[in-house]
Structure formats: structure tokens, C-alpha cells
Design goal:
Shape: elongated
Strand order of the largest sheet: 2-1-3-4
Number of helices: 8
Largest sheet: 4 strands, mixed
Order of helices and strands: HHHHEHHEEEHH
Bound molecules: FE2/S2 (inorganic) cluster
Helix content: 40-55%
Radius of gyration: 18 Å
CATH class of the largest domain: Alpha Beta
CATH architecture of the largest domain: 3-Layer(aba) Sandwich
CATH superfamily of the largest domain: Glutaredoxin
Structural class: alpha+beta
Length: about 150
């Protein structure tokens, strides 16, 4: 078991009802739920691994792939949707070479869609880590992620 997971588990008692908070802590530490951690969580809580896996996959909050250094969140809220978010997502998928829910092989970028990011008056908007990129159009997306395109 790796050290970080050990430290996390030490803060719990090993009860079945702790599975969700344990998973949340693991995700905070690793940015996703590594598959190997489920075996350790199962042993720690005395719950079959299939059940830990079942809990983890039931909740949309849990991710099973690592985030990229630049985690891109495309807003799919109403204001963004009507202002062209689907086209923005398409453009980003093309620029980054990954589909939503994926992480680039070099772990540089990950891409997901999220509900409203609170910048509706600036729609369509995305967030790259903590930075909002607003009033986007396909050209701005290409400019923002031009480095990736240029390297292809
Ligand atoms: S709907 Fe996209 S920021 Fe609110």
C-alpha cells in the first residue's frame, strides 16, 4: 500500500459507512481513484472489493483517470449551451486530441463537461484549473490551445 493511502486510512476506523469519505479523501490526494486503492479500501473496511467498486462507480463525483496538469472543464449549463458550448467542446476535443472524460497520455490535459461554472453572463465559458475563459468561440479555443495543435 502506498504511503499516501496509508496516511488517509489512518484517519478512519475501517467501518463500512466510511467508504464514501475514504474515496473522497483518496480522490483529493490523487485527483482520481487509483484502481489499486480499491483493493486496500476493501481490506481496510472488510467490504468485498466489488462492493467498493460499486459504490465508487455509482457516484458521478468519482473519477478513475488522473487529471491532467491543465484540467479543462467545459460548461454545459443552459446559457453556455445556447451560446455554442457544444461547438466549443468539439473544438477542444480536436485541439487537445482527447474526448471529454479523458486525459492526454502525457498527463498535460484532461477534459470534462460540468454544470454551470457561475459565469453565465460570459457564456460560453470554460475553466482551466481555476481560471475562467469566457465568451469563447472556436477561433479563441484554437488560440488558447494552439500550443497543442502546433505540436501535432
Ligand atoms: S451556464 Fe455556463 S457558466 Fe452558467
Amino acid at each position: 500500500m502506498d504511503k499516501s493511502l496509508q496516511v488517509i486510512l489512518q484517519t478512519f476506523e475501517g467501518k463500512k459507512e466510511e467508504i464514501i469519505p475514504i474515496l473522497q479523501n483518496v480522490q483529493d490526494a490523487y485527483s482520481y481513484i487509483p484502481e489499486r486503492s480499491m483493493t486496500d479500501i476493501a481490506l481496510f473496511t472488510g467490504v468485498p472489493e466489488s462492493q467498493v467498486y460499486g459504490v465508487a462507480t455509482f457516484y458521478a463525483q468519482f473519477r478513475f483517470t488522473p487529471r491532467g496538469k491543465k484540467h479543462c472543464m467545459v460548461c454545459r449549463g443552459t446559457a453556455c449551451h445556447v451560446n455554442g458550448a457544444p461547438r466549443i467542446l468539439e473544438e477542444m476535443e480536436e485541439a487537445l486530441g482527447i474526448k471529454q472524460g479523458e486525459t492526454s497520455e502525457d498527463l498535460e490535459y484532461s477534459l470534462e463537461t460540468v454544470a454551470c461554472i457561475g459565469a453565465c453572463s460570459l457564456a460560453p465559458a470554460i475553466m482551466v484549473n481555476d481560471t475562467v475563459e469566457a465568451k469563447l468561440d472556436p477561433k479563441k479555443v484554437r488560440k488558447l490551445f494552439g500550443r497543442v495543435v502546433a505540436n501535432e
